[in-house]
């Protein structure tokens, strides 16, 4: 079983959203999940679909949200940053009830593999 300590660094100030500055991990095994995409009529639908895909990938390895040590998030539109922050503010407390949100790097890119996709999330977990 992995030992995961997620924390913030006081000298860096409070994070801007539902993420932490660092994750310190002692694990026997790491799980690297490719960037997940999901179709949907709007940003929230796609975001919910993406995290549902991540949950399936975690579950397939006998893991869950508590095993996640890092996210990398790709957005196509900078105006979706506030939507992403609102989605995490609403959903992450259910996914991470202890309030230890994994580090997340957020990138704005030109496009994803298909024009319809607005968000992609890559995940690293420790098992």
List the helices and strands and how they pair.
Blueprint: E1 3-7, E2 22-26, E3 30-36, H1 43-60, E4 68-75, H2 81-95, E5 104-108, E6 119-126
Parallel strand pairs: 4-5
Antiparallel strand pairs: 1-2, 3-6, 4-6
Textual characterization of the structure:
With 127 residues, this protein is an alpha+beta fold. Helix content is 26%, strand content 30%. It has two helices and six strands; from the N terminus they run βββαβαββ. It has helices at residues 43-60, 81-95, and strands at residues 3-7, 22-26, 30-36, 68-75, 104-108, 119-126.
How would you concisely characterize the structure shown here?
This protein has helices at 43-60, 81-95, and strands at 3-7, 22-26, 30-36, 68-75, 104-108, 119-126.
Order of strands, widest sheet? 3-6-4-5
Fraction of residues in H or I helices: 25-40%
Order of helices and strands: EEEHEHEE
Please tell me how large the radius of gyration is. 14 Å
What is the count of helical runs? 2
Which class best fits the helix and strand makeup?
alpha+beta
On the 0-100 scale, what is the average pLDDT?
97
N/C terminus separation = 6 Å
The largest β sheet comes out as: 4 strands, mixed
- Please mark out the parts with pLDDT under 50 across 5 or more consecutive residues, or reply none: none
């Amino acid at each position: 079983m992995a030992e995961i300590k997620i924390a913030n660094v006081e000298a860096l100030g409070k994070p801007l959203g539902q993420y932490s500055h660092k994750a310190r991990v002692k694990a026997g095994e790491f799980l690297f999940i490719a960037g997940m995409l999901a179709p949907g009529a709007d940003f929230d639908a796609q975001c919910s679909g993406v995290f549902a895909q991540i949950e399936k990938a975690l579950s397939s390895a006998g893991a869950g949200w508590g095993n996640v040590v890092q996210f990398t998030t790709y957005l196509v539109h900078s105006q979706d940053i506030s939507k992403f922050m609102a989605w995490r503010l609403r959903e992450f407390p259910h996914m991470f009830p202890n309030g230890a949100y994994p580090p997340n790097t957020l990138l704005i890119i030109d496009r994803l593999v298909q024009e319809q996709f607005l968000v992609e999330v890559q995940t690293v977990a420790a098992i």
